[in-house]
Amino acid sequence: MKFENSKKLYNKGLENLVGAVNSPVRAFASVGGNPLFIKKAKGSKIVDVDNNEYVDLVLSYGPMILGHRHKSVEKAVKKTLKKGYSFGASTKNEIKLAKIVCDAFPGMDKVRFVNSGTEAVLSGIRLARAFTGKDKIIKFSGCYHGHQDALLVAAGSGLATLSLPGSKGVPEGAVKNTLIAEYNNLESVKSHFEKYDDIAGVIIEPVGGNMGVVVPQNNFLKDLKELAHKNGALLIADEVMTGFRSKFGGAQELLGVEADITCLGKVIGGGFPVGAYGARNEIMENVAPLGGMYQAGTLSGNPIAMAGGIATLTELKRQNPYDYFGGIGNKIESILLNAAKRYDVALTVNRFGSMINPFFTKEHVTDFKKAQTSDTEKFATFFWEMIKNGVFLPPSQFEAWFLSSAITEKDLKIIAKATDKAMLAVSKM
Ligand code: HOZ
């Protein structure tokens, strides 16, 4: 397999782009080698500029749940494009998408659209503070909530990939109200509530996806909500990854927990830049123009993005692929575990619906510390063998793999074959 054209573009990109990328995780920093440049994608497949074709398990880090360029999404977007791109005034489709979202999440009476998951969460945090009149926020190590200053500590995703404890340029003052707890460890949350009486909210990925996939154990989320409420704080669910993915009503529907504030992104825009935050009326009435919490955006509710979101969610509801995801997720889990057994490689696989990933460790991974016991050098070898055998994975141990409803039995065979070769390569290390 050749990567010459990607290599050329990478070197050219270095001149005027930082690291030749526009988001650090794309740089392949922890797996080595040059990042791949993509030419096109369709259905379950993605093609790089050297014409190598892969089964895509990155799916733009989650949004492409129907696979690439689903015909109903493409049709809706093309139709909308002909009417104009952005107006700085409201459109009917914003109301339509808002209704779909509020119907899916019973805890949301109202929603505000923004342009990314980062924006959704930073607004959700501000809203929790506005509603409670308190300042402190508890977050969990290994969870990543976008690149806003206040939450860029002990974070997963690109920071975990690059082994960064936090970000330069974040003033101490910006994180002085951020408290860190451990995922699946209620005691670590309790100790903060015992110490501080000005905690506005606890923010969590209901299923961790930015330290690899980490699933809440037992009744962790229910207990967390109860604990937060007992202390006058809100539960903020960052469902940027899981919203409409774990279930149409997100991880909250599957886990039976209703958050006070929900933040969304990724699938909600079907590949176009959309984020959203929402809550029940008494909370959302704090947002301008109804209330005094200010948040705005020139391109928020962009017509093209709204059309992409509506078409994606409509098709998703029609397909209802959640059982299918369970089935193919199960198969991929077995493929990974059987290959590990065959070649005597220590492996743990975590999965929640259509989010899955392996950790090269014997540990049962339930928090960030355990995720970090994974051998990242083994992951790097595994990653490149998968690439060379036609499977596009996130270039990081700490990013979830995503499944789309476009994946076929034939794709699963490609994944199985590649996994066998990749695991063999790992066993020889
Ligand atoms: N885990 C990241 C977002 N949730 C991946 C995308 C990126 O950082 O580019």
Distinct small-molecule ligands in the complex? (4S)-4,5-diaminopentanoic acid
How many strands? 14
Tell me the name of the CATH class of the largest domain.
Alpha Beta
Shape: globular
* Name given to the CATH homologous superfamily of the largest domain: Type I PLP-dependent aspartate aminotransferase-like (Major domain)
What order do the strands of the largest sheet run in, or round the barrel if closed? 4-10-9-8-7-5-6
Q: Which class of secondary structure composition applies to the elements?
A: alpha/beta
Named CATH topology of the largest domain: Aspartate Aminotransferase, domain 2
The profile of the biggest β sheet is: 7 strands, mixed
**Unreliable runs, pLDDT <50, ≥5 residues?**
none
* Oligomeric status: single chain
Integer count of domains: 2
Q: If you average the pLDDT, what whole number results?
A: 96
